[in-house]
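Figure 6 in text form: structure in, sequence out.
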């Protein structure tokens, strides 16, 4: 947990033959893997089911909550109506309690809406990460980000759709739009591509990762590096080192002082922003957010504070999902009965994680009444 507490940007690893053994999975988690990506374009559902069970078992043993992102090939592999294309895959996602589903080759808001409608009909509640990898999707990226719960800058296929020189600015555009909306964004494809075969990346690749961090991405993703590469663990270790170094110059104060943008007049967003401003001014050791559905933690993360965001949540699935979000370190605790009990949970959490010592100041934020999703309205400075 300690290394994760000092790193804001998360690491997504694609699993494959090089990385799905128990031994390698343990090493990946120790090295900094936060989210596992399973690509349904490869392997059988039975194999993926076994991998999910293995991840859950190991992450529980190591006490490291790990989100699972299931990447659906969708229309790349099948044709027909939405149920024919996605029905079996969505049922598999539900049966195996995955934390996110990623939609490939989306070209319109309507396509995302159709999948959401099918999820609703199937009574499945799993957040959608929309992959922007088509020129048509890039043209309406802001609307697509609005309808999804998160976005992936899928630079590989996007680079085949638009001129390659346009990809860097497209990446910055998508990250900026996601940041403005407080939605998690993953930057993906060929980040440390040399490490598929080499134990170290090129200088250009290291610069690429650092630039994504400084652009404001929530997570960076490894694909072939961890799925089929010779050095999956070393790739994660290197990714973590580059993130740490880039974050030493991340402009936290500049982000905090930018105009609020989206959600300008919403109470929960204003409250989260105030929590970050107070934490900055008093040099608090952490921001502790009680977050039933994840909303409070997302709102705080949107303002990119320098402090770790300790997200205390009540359910296993929200804890895992928050592992994708910039700067958030999720923990599951029992539901507090009143405000005094919540403040005690915040205090003990700050001490247990080691981010604060007795006498230090933390900023606590939550919603009253406690445990109601989307009601962030409380900020308190609390002495540990």
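Output sequence:
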């Amino acid at each position: 947990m300690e290394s994760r507490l000092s790193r804001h940007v998360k690491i997504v690893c694609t699993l494959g033959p090089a990385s799905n053994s128990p031994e390698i999975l343990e090493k990946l988690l120790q090295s900094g893997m936060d989210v596992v990506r399973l690509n349904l374009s490869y392997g059988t559902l039975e194999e993926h089911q076994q991998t999910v069970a293995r991840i859950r078992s190991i992450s529980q043993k190591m006490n490291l909550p790990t989100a699972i992102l299931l990447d659906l090939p969708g229309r790349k592999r099948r044709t027909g109506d939405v149920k024919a294309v996605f029905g079996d895959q969505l049922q598999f996602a539900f049966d195996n309690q995955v934390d996110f589903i990623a939609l490939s080759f989306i070209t319109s808001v309507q396509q995302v809406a159709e999948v959401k409608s099918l999820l609703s009909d199937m009574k499945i509640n799993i957040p959608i990460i929309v992959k922007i990898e088509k020129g048509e999707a890039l043209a309406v990226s802001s609307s697509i980000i609005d309808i999804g719960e998160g976005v992936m800058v899928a630079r590989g296929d996007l680079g085949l759709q638009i001129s390659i020189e346009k990809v860097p600015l497209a990446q910055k555009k998508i990250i900026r739009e996601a940041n403005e909306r407080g939605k998690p964004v993953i930057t993906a494809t060929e980040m440390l591509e040399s490490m598929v075969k080499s134990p170290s990346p090129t200088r250009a690749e290291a610069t690429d990762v650092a630039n994504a961090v400084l652009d404001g991405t929530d997570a960076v993703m490894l694909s072939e590096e961890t799925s089929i590469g010779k050095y999956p663990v070393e790739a994660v270790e290197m990714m973590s080192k580059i993130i740490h170094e880039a974050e030493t110059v991340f402009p936290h104060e500049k982000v905090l002082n930018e105009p609020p943008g989206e959600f300008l007049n919403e109470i929960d967003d204003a409250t989260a922003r105030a929590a970050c401003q107070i934490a900055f001014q008093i040099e608090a050791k952490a921001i502790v957010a009680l977050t039933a559905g994840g909303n409070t933690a997302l709102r705080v993360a949107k303002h990119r504070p320098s402090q770790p965001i300790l997200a205390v949540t009540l359910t296993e699935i929200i804890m895992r999902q928050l592992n994708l979000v910039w700067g958030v370190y999720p923990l599951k605790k029992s539901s507090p009965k009143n405000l005094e009990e919540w403040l005690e949970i915040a205090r003990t959490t700050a001490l247990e994680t080691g981010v604060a010592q007795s006498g230090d100041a933390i900023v606590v934020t939550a919603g009253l009444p406690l445990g109601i999703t989307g009601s962030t309205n409380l900020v308190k400075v609390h002495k540990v």
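Caption detail: The mean pLDDT is 93.
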